[in-house]
Amino acid sequence: MAYPLLHIAGDRTETLEPKRNARSSADRIRPLIEWTTLKVSGKPRVYGSILKINRLHRGSVESAVTSFPMAVMYGESDYTLTLLYLLNDDLIRASEFSVKDFERAAWGISRIGSRESVISVESVELGKGRIMEKEIAETAYAFPLTGKKVQGNGVVQGVIDWKEGIGNYSKARIMVMFYPEGKVKVEGRLRVIDVGEEVVL
Known about the structure:
- This protein is mainly β.
- The strands form six sheets. Strands 9, 11, 14 and 15 form a four-stranded antiparallel beta sheet that branches. A three-stranded antiparallel beta sheet has the order 10-13-12, with no helix packed on it. The chain has a two-stranded antiparallel sheet with strand order 1-6.
- The radius of gyration is 18 Å and the shape is globular.
- The mean pLDDT is 82.
């Protein structure tokens, strides 16, 4: 969502700090987003391939070998991703953006994920969420796994904690996420958000 949103503001920059610890321009809108998560209909195939990365950036050549866990959704099946962004209304009102800008930007999302997968947005909805505390909840949305017991199937992955900054991930903190296959039952000290008929942790 960051790039279409920044385009609305007339910003086409690639980085905020064009030096050694450069951050993505997407980091500019990070404070306005309280949380983001997704749910998937269909079961993607998960791989952990060893990859060689070559990068040419501002005249210097960089190379590295890494292993990225990635979920692949092949075109033979009809997959649906539902993305949820929890926005802070007070911070948005104090910013240069409006909630309407976020809605327009959501329609402009064309890629998502570490493999830059191409997607097509079919619908965008706005709504209010109600925050509650529970000990048991059912959800189909991905959530941080630490401190929770889960009944149901899904995939556990370590992912970059985007709340600490978007861009240079060499020293980024990893958080363990659970990606449900359908709905799962979760137990623990939970802070949940009721968004219509869905619950998000």
